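Lab notebook page, bench 4
Experiment: in silico fold of construct C2
Operator: M.H.
Input chain length: 279 residues
Purpose: comparison with the prior construct
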Amino acid sequence: KQWYQRRVAITAGEGASFKNYWVNMLGERINFENIRVLLERVTENMCEENTQHGGQCYEYFYRTVTHLYQWYLRTAGLAPSPSKRGRGSITDEFDEQCSTFDVSTYMEDDYEPSFSDIRDAVVEKFCVAECSGLYQEVLLGCCTATMIQDTGLADAVLVVADDIKDLIVDIYPDDEDYIDEVNTDYLDYAEEVMGMLRDPTCDNGVSYNVVPCADWTPEEFGLGNPCEGLSGKKLKKCEKKNPVDAGDADPSPCAGLKGKKLKKCEKKEKKKNKQNARL
């Protein structure tokens, strides 16, 4: 009770009621305009046209979150039997090491992983050549690139984070120095992560194309090769599922078609080729 009375006195003045306390907190201390700007930037990114994979970016991020959850289940040894709908996932076309992570060290009771520990582990995983095709397709598509290169979104996040920090300081004024220190540390971590995502390169030559959807074109960047890094049966299976014409040859008019449409197109092209052969 004493803690609450102190908070009321600090934020709404001595003798303020419960109602006045929350009116002051919600109406004056929280900058809803900054929150509105942040939500607008997030919405615009989510509704961006996904020129690389089709559809809109919110669909891409939904698939990304689904993959990450599946990877978590595999890592924790909780992966259920794949449903009929989930079969044929791009994850299954790559070695299991690409979607499982060694977290045993982090589970030790006396171990507290630092930011640098987690950063180094992620970088090491991303620099495995055999897995780069999976990470490029699932994590670093043009939608991700659009979001991480949106300076307006980054600025909005920083502004709202600063507002939240000021609000917490208002409630816990005795801990202002500690709150400032923690806030600065986390903003520095975020800036370092964003820098790594904007230019993800490895010492062993592995690199990623981080191209926003507005700049992404199949002529310049290709259609995205989900089979990169595969070999043997997995490569053949992936190429069959994701046909890509070799070299500079013209793309097949039947590329991307399935089922009856594919058969109809192939039959039409076969007939067309026979006619051309007679000429």
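Observations: Residues 83-87, 245-250 have pLDDT under 50 and may be disordered. The first helix runs from residue 2 to 12.
Next step: discuss at group meeting.
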